[in-house]
Each structure stands twice: as C-alpha cells, then as structure tokens.
C-alpha cells in the first residue's frame, strides 16, 4: 500500500566481502525512522559473513576516501546514498583489539599526474591499525598481504604520508606512527597513508567509478 511505501526509505549499500574479492550491491528498504543498526541487522540476513560472529559497519565513501563511519544509532532518514557510496564491511579483528598506543589510519591509493603534479585518488580506501614504533617496512608487508598484491607489482609501489593534500614520501626505516600523532584532526580523511601505483582497473561507468578497486572487484547487484 502506498502510505506504507511513503514511510519507507531504500538505501543502496555496497557490501564488501572480507575474504572474497567481490562487491555486492543490496537495496535495503526500511521505515524512515530506522537506524543504521537496523540496516546492519537487515544486511546480515542477506550477506555471506566470513564467520557467524562477524560485526558489520557502514561507511560513507566519496571519491575514494572514507569520510565517515556511521554510528549504529544514526537515523537513516537523512542518509544520502545518491551522492555518497554507502559501503558495508566486516570490522577486522585487529581493529576490535586496538590498544591505547595504536592508531587507526586511513589508507588510500593514488597516482600523480607528472605534468601538473596533481594527486588523483582511486580504488578502494581502507583503514589500517598501526602500532607505536612500527616501520614502513613492517606496515608494507601487512598491506601487501591484505591486498594480495604480487611481489613484482608491489616492488614498484611508493608510500607517502599525506596531510592537507601534500605527500611526504616515506623510507622503509621510517616510523609511520610519528606521522599520525594528532587524534581527531578536523578533516581526518585528509590525513592518510597514500599508496602510489598505477591504476590498473578498467574505467567503469558504475557509480561514477567510485567503487573501482585497484584490482577490479566484480560487482553484483541484488535487490
């Protein structure tokens, strides 16, 4: 019935599987007064989790940067899924056990336009826990394992810490933690670890290319 439909809101959510390299789009329809927690509970009935106790979170992604982790209590009425990409994913175990001296940092892929020195972000942004005293070399090993990048390709990657759009290139012996000292920085999405490498993904029209992975993730759409 129409009155009931008018009281509903549909959100398009891209679910990223924890271990499979695929993205599945789900249309979640719930009453407007529902919360993000309700969206997550609804998603759990539709998606395949890596283990039954897996917890999910909902992120706001725009132009290959993570702008927000939605609190479970937030009402869905004001969430815009036309402009942003809503991404659901499992919360990694390492993030649940984060220590007082650990930092959760943003990690983005980027290329640099040699002519104009312009930074272009691409692919799937993600979070990474870094530990006090950890060098870039140690962090690189974890990133390579997480993204399943072949050695030959990974050897060409460069790493930089970014603050307000400016890259500061890192050496293997640099302690990355010292570059991310400030907590709760305004515009935290602009302070990130950048992975510089060629964007191998074929260009796609889907969602303004927002959901392209550095290594193309197949997208399936379920209603």
Automatic annotation (TrEMBL):
Listed under catalytic activity are: Thiol-dependent hydrolysis of ester, thioester, amide, peptide and isopeptide bonds formed by the C-terminal Gly of ubiquitin (a 76-residue protein attached to proteins as an intracellular targeting signal)
> What would be an example GO MF term here?
cysteine-type deubiquitinase activity
Alphabetic keyword roster: Hydrolase, Protease, Thiol protease, Ubl conjugation pathway
Domain (Ubiquitin carboxyl-terminal hydrolase C-terminal): give its ranges. 1-201
Which InterPro entries does the protein's record reference? Answer: USP_C (IPR029346)
Biological process terms from the Gene Ontology for this record are:
proteolysis
Q: Give EC number(s), comma-separated.
A: 3.4.19.12
- In terms of superkingdom, the source organism counts as Eukaryota
> What family name appears in the similarity comment?
Belongs to the peptidase C19 family.
This protein is called what? ubiquitinyl hydrolase 1
């Amino acid at each position: 019935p129409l009155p009931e439909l008018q009281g509903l809101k549909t959100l398009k959510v891209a679910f990223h599987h924890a271990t499979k390299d695929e993205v599945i789009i789900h249309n979640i329809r719930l009453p407007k007064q529902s919360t993000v927690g309700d969206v997550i509970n609804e998603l759990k009935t539709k998606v395949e989790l890596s283990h039954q106790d897996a917890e999910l979170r909902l992120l706001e992604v725009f132009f290959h940067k993570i702008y927000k982790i939605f609190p479970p209590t937030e009402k869905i009425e004001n969430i815009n899924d036309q402009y942003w990409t809503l991404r659901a994913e499992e919360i990694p175990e390492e993030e649940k056990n984060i220590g007082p001296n650990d930092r959760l940092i943003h990690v983005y892929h980027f290329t640099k336009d040699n002519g104009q020195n312009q930074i272009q972000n691409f692919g799937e942004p993600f979070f990474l826990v870094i530990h006090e005293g950890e060098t870039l070399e140690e962090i690189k090993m974890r990133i390579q394992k997480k993204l399943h990048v072949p050695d030959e390709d990974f050897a060409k990657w460069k790493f930089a810490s970014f603050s307000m759009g400016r890259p500061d290139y890192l050496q293997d012996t640099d302690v990355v933690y010292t570059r991310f000292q400030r907590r709760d920085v305004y515009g935290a999405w602009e302070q990130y670890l950048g992975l510089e490498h060629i964007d191998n993904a074929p260009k796609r029209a889907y969602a303004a290319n927002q959901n392209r992975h550095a290594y193309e993730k197949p997208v399936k759409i379920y209603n």
